[in-house]
Structure of tRNA (Uracil-5-)-methyltransferase:
Amino acid sequence: MDITSAETKATYDEIKKYVAEHNAVMKVSNLCISQVKRKCGIEVGKNLCVATRRMDCLQGNSTTAAIDLEIVPSPNLPKNEDSRQPQCPEDKESAIVEALKYFKMIQQK
């Protein structure tokens, strides 16, 4: 039985949980995870969209709500090349690398 590439990928929440369990309840941000993934050559996807709700009208007993979908830039990617972002500390970076190895997203060396 072959393992597909999707089955070998861990979610950000799974990586956070692994890091917390194996590193004295260390918390890592999505930003740190995406920075480490990029350093390791793992493609980082973009957040697709954020839904915002607004009430269009209230009529008698019925409520009609509309959902506006707004495409927003990913919070994990810089808006432009010149923008500054905090860099992931070395201890968190090594903990995330350990998690990526555990989930077989990068090769063990």
About this structure: The two ends are 25 Å apart (CA to CA). The chain has three helices and two strands.
